[in-house]
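Ticket #4471: structure output looks truncated?

Reporter: J.K.
Steps to reproduce: submitted the chain below (205 residues) through the standard prediction queue, then opened the result file.
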Amino acid sequence: MATINVQRPERLTLAERLYLPAILNGLRLTWRHIWGERVTLQYPEEERQFKRVYRGVHRLNKDDKGRVKCVACEMCAASCPAHCITIKATEVEWPERDKIPKIFEIDELKCIFCGYCVEACPEDAIHMTRHYHLIARSREDMIFGLDKLLAIYDETKEQEVLRGVDFGMTHARIPGKEAANPDEVQKLAYPVVGVVTKAETQRAQ
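Returned output as attached by the reporter:
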């Protein structure tokens, strides 16, 4: 029959049983934070400044004529791992395109803010803003429809946002080949997935 040796913990000392060392360590940590660097922001008077690659609430862009830029190709919905994008198209008689979204909804509660929709869009019609004030009284209010997404564009069109080309900036890693503008970035970065293949590297060099 096998023998099992059980390691029993050592007995606590008198000081440990009184919790004095733990209390003193806690007080020392508190005292260090009192006199250390302040990291708390007085929100909402002060707001945090995020990095360029911050992925916040989405927006749908407009073209130079003030019309929705989306062509309802559903590439963003197909690439979404959370399946939070719903699109229904309607036909239009425009010279440059034949359909636009009749319904475009993003469930912000399901969204994981991965940015795949931005990276997959061939028309640069969807961006991610720095807006993070997600406040609602019901789950239905967190489903952002076409009107709300376009309204966010009007609010943030002068602000810096995360575009599809910004993903390309992080994916284009070809030695000795620096991208000077967004068009060159898209040529260097493999579309949608963002992987630069060996063949793409050889062609770029």
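Triage note (M.O.): checked the attachment and the full token line is present. Confidence is low (pLDDT under 50) at residues 188-201.
Status: closed, working as intended.
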